[in-house]
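Batch job 17 of 40 flagged for manual review because the log was empty.
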Amino acid sequence: MGKLSSSLNYRQERFITEYVRLNGNGTQAAIAAGYATSGADVQAIRLLANDRIRSAIEDYKRRSETRACLTLAEKRAKIAEIVTRPGTRDADILKALELDAKLAGEIVMRSEQQVAIYNGDANRERLGEIARAALQSSQQIVASLP
């Protein structure tokens, strides 16, 4: 792990990289960075309230995205293709939509309130609407790329 900023200590840097790797799970990132398990949730809140940490997280995300094989927009476009492909299983659609929501920052921690369960035709129609909207959004993003 390279030095993110001269004003950050090792555990803060580690928190930043773990926070991004763990898709925004602050408590687990704090634990992985070496903070005490018993106070990791409070430490995560404290770290995320620090402007230098928030700025470093955004910088690290940007650098990580440019190093990835696919850009974020390309990943989201691929997900939209999978979701709208005829014959795609419902379970695969749900998984793809969950991944897209995580990439978009809409889901940062998995909890029972955030898990959608497919259980009938009404939800199938809603999935179709979501998939079409995701495809349109991804196509717009890809079209805007240089």
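Reviewer: the log was empty due to a logging misconfiguration, but the result itself is present. Residues 72-144 form one domain. Unflagging and moving on to job 18.
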